[in-house]
Design goal:
9% of the residues lie in helices and 28% in strands. The chain is built from 4 helices and 20 strands. The strands form 6 sheets. It has a 6-stranded antiparallel beta sheet. Strands 7-14-16-15 form a 4-stranded mixed beta sheet, with no helix packed on it. 31% of the residues are buried.
Length: 363
């Protein structure tokens, strides 16, 4: 390892390592080596992990990878020399699903690049932060939230899902199973889960070129989400993630990203009772389609123009009351493509706003 990046036996109380092998302490990342504990950082050029001195801004030590068998981090050269599979790094890779036809992957060159996660972002995914509506406003977005658990309480603690409905049958007769959902609700999945979103989706600012009807000029400068690669019909793109909020506490400025999770009515929330999710992940930034009046004010939900279907799966999850888990039923809202979607295409879903809701939101 070398003198400059020698492992040390920690003399302070480090938390337990998470599923990715990280220990977070005072916004720094530490890992277990066979002979001690070492601070690491992300190489901004490669996105890989390197040993890091406390005084360094950019890590300069050897490249390290996590061995899921031993639960230790080892030099990547040793990992490769041993003949084992390359361990997961902070560099995105794609492996085609062999169950799909080859033509679905011919458009890979259309995919947009995925930026490496920085050390700040990796730490942020693991940090439990108190909820604040002030940072969750129109036009705001933080990719860190894709790596956080989809259900969180107001203290930022995961509301861990313990039971997941296997199949949902819509009124149309369409059947959806929860198999595709499981990787997106992996506990302590962090950057692994965040990568699932970014491999398929890209957030960007809405521009004049994105306007479909004149009234949408009001969206310029706000959020939009496009396919980062071709998405097949029936494919899951993710679940609505954010902070659980009782309806009686929702403020008007929170309604933009609030969605009901009390049942399977599958509509965005507008001053209705029950439990809601104040969304903050990339799914919550997907737009809808409205009908506008001559002045450009939204007056009704459009009947078409959507390429996503929202399906509510009943789950049982543990909401902490103090230190004791209180199990409740919620609707985990999953988003599936209803058609083949080309890379670069904007995603839209039906918010299912009633006439009353439209008048409240757009007086």
């Amino acid at each position: 390892m070398g003198e400059r990046h020698r492992p040390v036996i920690a003399q302070f109380g480090l938390p337990e390592a998470d599923a990715q092998g990280f220990r977070m302490f005072k916004d720094r990342l530490y890992v277990d080596l066979p002979d001690g504990v070492l601070q690491i950082g992300v190489d901004p050029q490669t996105g890989r992990y390197r040993a890091k001195k406390p005084s360094e801004r950019i890590p300069s030590g050897p490249e390290l990878v996590f061995d899921p068998v031993s639960k230790f981090w080892v030099p990547s050269t040793l990992k490769r020399a041993s003949g084992q599979a390359e361990a997961a790094t902070n560099k995105s890779t794609r492996e085609p699903d062999t169950g799909r036809s080859d033509d679905e992957f011919e458009l890979a060159s259309e995919s947009m690049p995925i930026a490496h996660f920085t050390e700040r972002e990796l730490v942020g995914m693991r940090r439990e932060e108190h909820y604040s509506a002030d940072t969750n406003t129109l036009g705001s977005y933080d990719r860190v939230n894709n790596g956080k658990y989809p259900f969180r309480d107001r203290f930022g603690r995961p509301v861990r899902i313990r039971k997941l409905e296997r199949e949902v049958v819509l009124e149309s007769g369409e059947r959806y199973t929860s198999e595709q959902i499981k990787p997106y609700i992996k506990f302590q999945g962090y950057e692994q889960v965040a990568r699932l979103y970014e491999e398929k989706l890209q957030w960007r600012r809405f521009t004049e070129a994105d306007v479909k009807v004149p009234g949408e000029a009001a969206l310029i400068g706000q959020s939009m989400v496009v396919a980062n690669r071709r998405i097949a019909s029936g494919e899951l793109i993710g679940v609505y993630g954010g902070t659980l909020r009782p309806g009686r506490f929702l403020q008007p400025n929170e309604l933009t990203f609030a969605m009901s999770v009390s049942d399977n009515t599958l509509k965005a929330s507008v001053a209705i009772p029950g439990m809601h999710l104040a969304g903050d992940n990339i799914i919550s930034r997907i737009n809808t389609c409205f009908i506008y009046d001559a002045a450009g004010k939204p007056i009704a939900q459009a009947r078409d123009g959507y390429n996503l279907q929202v399906v509510g799966f009943t789950v049982e999850a543990d909401l902490l009351m103090g230190d004791k888990p209180n199990r409740n039923k919620y609707s985990l809202n999953a988003f599936f493509a209803t058609q083949d979607i080309a890379a670069g295409t904007e995603l839209r879903w039906d918010y299912n706003y009633s006439d009353e809701a439209m008048k409240l939101l757009f007086p």
